[in-house]
């Protein structure tokens, strides 16, 4: 049994296709198949059911895969500890980020991080919170950039930002003439929402006054994009809630943007890792990059009211 064979097993479980798993491991499909078969022969069990359209682990194979992920995490940590001591930043850095943060944060750090560490291979992928959490636990991601708290003791959270929620109001809406808004002002029938599955949607509903949520809606259109919701408000009617990062360039001259009365509702944005992540230098560098590129009023530790995402 070798580390390489365990990597192939985990890759096949992740991608459920021999060709794709081989591509991700930078080997040919016959090489990956042969090494997995050798491991099966050594263990005396069948790890994967190859008869189905998508390759699936057998019952014992699922247990082997789970243990393989733990073994690989420990092995990678050993390498990372040595690199950390030598001051080296090499290898892969896998980052997962939720879609309501990605358009506004990834452009701030990605190229600068790569330029700072030219031997680092950075991979960033958008995915929902639950998927990021699962992949962190399965060692398929190194860092998650998402909304906290998660209330999960198996993960470490490093708060970075406290980003205010703002109202984005059409010119024809009653709220347009107000300087600020408060939760009791938010009329549910006029509210444009993100689709189910977005933590931002749950936070918006948590901000609204409970009595307002019982009002019948005159229309239903739910988008997967904050930018689409903003455009619906601009061209139609009603209002939506947006994170401040999405309107930074509009703050000084757009009367459609309304702040909440103090204390402002905010979402806590954190870098999240499993407790075994030892490349603390990378984590610190990423945090510093983010803080340098956003206004200081958004830095963690301000006086806003944190809105839970569950």
TrEMBL record:
It comes from Hymenobacter jejuensis. Pfam families: HTH_1, LysR_substrate. One of its GO terms (cellular component) is protein-DNA complex. Keywords: Activator, DNA-binding, Transcription, Transcription regulation. This is LysR family transcriptional regulator. GO terms for molecular function: DNA binding; DNA-binding transcription factor activity. Belongs to the LysR transcriptional regulatory family. PROSITE patterns: HTH_LYSR. InterPro entries: LysR_HTH_N (IPR000847), LysR_subst-bd (IPR005119), WH-like_DNA-bd_sf (IPR036388), WH_DNA-bd_sf (IPR036390). Residues 1-58 form the HTH lysR-type domain. CDD domains: PBP2_OxyR (cd08411).
């Amino acid at each position: 049994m070798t580390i390489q064979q365990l990597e192939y097993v985990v890759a096949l479980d992740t991608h459920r296709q021999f060709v794709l798993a081989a591509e991700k491991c930078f080997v040919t499909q016959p090489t990956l198949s042969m090494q997995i078969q050798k491991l099966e022969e050594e263990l005396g069990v069948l790890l994967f059911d190859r008869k189905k359209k998508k390759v699936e682990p057998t019952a014992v194979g699922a247990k082997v895969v789970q243990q393989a992920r733990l073994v690989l995490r420990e092995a990678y940590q050993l390498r990372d500890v040595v690199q950390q001591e030598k001051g080296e930043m090499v290898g892969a850095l896998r980052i997962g980020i939720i879609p309501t943060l990605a358009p506004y944060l990834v452009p701030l750090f990605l190229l600068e991080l790569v330029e700072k560490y030219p031997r680092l291979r950075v991979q960033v992928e958008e995915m929902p919170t639950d998927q990021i959490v699962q992949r962190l636990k399965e060692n398929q991601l190194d860092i998650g950039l998402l909304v906290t708290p998660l209330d999960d003791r198996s993960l470490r959270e490093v708060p970075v930002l406290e980003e205010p929620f703002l109202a984005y109001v059409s010119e024809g809406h009653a709220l347009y003439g107000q300087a600020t808004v408060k939760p009791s002002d938010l009329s549910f029938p006029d509210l444009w929402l993100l689709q189910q599955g977005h933590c931002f949607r749950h936070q918006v509903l948590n901000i609204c006054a409970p009595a307002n949520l019982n009002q019948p809606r005159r229309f239903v259109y739910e988008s997967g994009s904050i930018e689409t919701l903003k455009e619906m408000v601009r061209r139609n009617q009603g209002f939506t809630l947006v994170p401040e990062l999405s309107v930074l360039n509009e703050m000084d001259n757009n009367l459609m943007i309304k702040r909440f009365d103090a204390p402002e509702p905010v979402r806590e944005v954190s870098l999240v890792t499993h407790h075994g992540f030892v490349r603390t230098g990378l984590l610190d560098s990423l945090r510093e990059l983010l803080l340098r590129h956003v206004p200081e009023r958004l830095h963690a530790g301000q006086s806003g009211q944190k809105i839970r995402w569950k």
